[in-house]
Amino acid sequence: MAGAFALCAVAAFPAAHAQGDAKRGEYLAKAGGCIACHTEERKGAVPYAGGRALNTPFGTFYGPNLTPHPDAGIGRWTEADFFRAMREGKRPDGANYFPAFPYPSFTKIADRDLSDLWAYLRTLPPSPRANQAHDLRFPFGWRLLVSAWNWLYFSPGPYTPDPQATPAVNRGAYLVQALGHCSECHTPRNFLGGPVRERYLAGGEGPDGKRIPNLTPTRLEKWSDAELKEFLTLGLTPDGDVAAEAMAEVIRDTTSQLTPADLDALVAYLRSLPPAPEAPRRTAARSDPPRELGRAADVSGRRQREEPLALGLRDR
User: Fold this and answer.
1) What share of the chain has pLDDT > 90, as a percent?
2) Cβ neighbours of residue 39 under 8 Å, at least 6 residues apart?
3) Cα dist. 212→24, 31, 72, 201, 248 in Å?
4) Taking the CB of residue 11, how many other CB atoms lie within 10 A of it?
5) DSSP assignment letter at 180
């Protein structure tokens, strides 16, 4: 990067230049479900080398290469570039990322965690797999339009703990709101892809007619804490059913990898939410698996969803 901008970046992100803990960053990457969107959906695919196709009403996005390859990946990035992407939704050249990349959630990640994530990504084997251009409908490929979207829906800044909440609830809120970016799928979206904030984590019906589960106590009160944790670690429902394909991937790659303390915190936070009523069905002909808690199309493994999907950093 240009020297002047680099100096500005250092001033803006002072913590970004502390030595990161790659081992801890590996755990954080699991908590964020990063591997699924950034790994091709085929046997033998190189982890984090990109290529996952994600279909949305705005077109198809392709997960980018996050390995430290100097040309195909993010090998020429600085840590300040990484912070700016996660905190501000900006590419190294200053252009906007599409809100498909969930920077509205990742902006809440703490500085230390960003440094650790960066340290982990630098340890990955470089892959020369070239990124694939997104295939978006007109005019959604215009990055300038994202500035208006950001003005409407994006509030940058790290997560601020609730002084009235317990440490466990605050930790769970951080996992759900920031690292896990659960709201990206489970909060309904309007026609611009902006979150309907009064329906936070309340789910609804996606554009393909599939139900996106309600994560508030309206739905979860039917399950005990033990049942919910068993589902999030083993994919088994209280009646012996199993998680649907998309959620099964989330469980395998993400929720089953959480420490017991973090899993307890996640459940505690979901229990603390105000109950939100189930959204009315738009079509009577479609059915919702009554016990399926999984993300209908999650950003960690996910086939479709009701707004641009979480993609990662170096999209072209």
Assistant:
1) 57
2) 45, 46, 47, 48, 49, 50, 51, 52, 63
3) 31, 20, 34, 9, 15
4) 9
5) S
Residue 135 phi/psi, 5-degree rounding, is: -115, 90
Measure the CA–CA gap between 238 and 240, rounded to whole angstroms: 6
**What is the C-alpha to C-alpha distance for residues 92 and 148, in angstroms, rounded to an integer?**
20
Quick one: which H or E segment has residue 136? strand 135-136
CA 267 to each of CA 32, 202, 226: distance values in angstroms, whole numbers, following the listed order: 16, 15, 10
Cα–Cα distance measured from residue 26 to residue 37, given in angstroms and rounded to the nearest whole number: 16
The pLDDT assigned to 297 comes to 34
Give CA–CA dist 284/109, Å, rounded: 40
- Cα separation values, 90 from 97, 118, 219, Å: 6, 16, 37
Phi/psi of residue 42, nearest 5 degrees: -155, 155
Q: In what order do the strands lie in the sheet with 135-136?
A: 53-56, 59-62, 135-136
Residue 33 CA to residue 257 CA, distance in Å, equals: 10
Average pLDDT over residues 71-95: 96
Q: For 45-68, write each residue's pLDDT tens digit.
A: 999 999 888 788 889 899 899 999
Whether the per-residue pLDDT at 145 is higher than 90: the answer is yes
Residues 6+ apart with CB under 8 A from 229: 263, 264, 267
Query: Which residues are registered as beta bridge partners of 54?
Result: 61
The model's confidence at residue 207, banded by pLDDT at 50, 70 and 90, is low
> d(Cα 124, Cα 103) in Å, to the nearest integer?
22
Which secondary-structure segment (H or E) carries 211?
strand 211-212
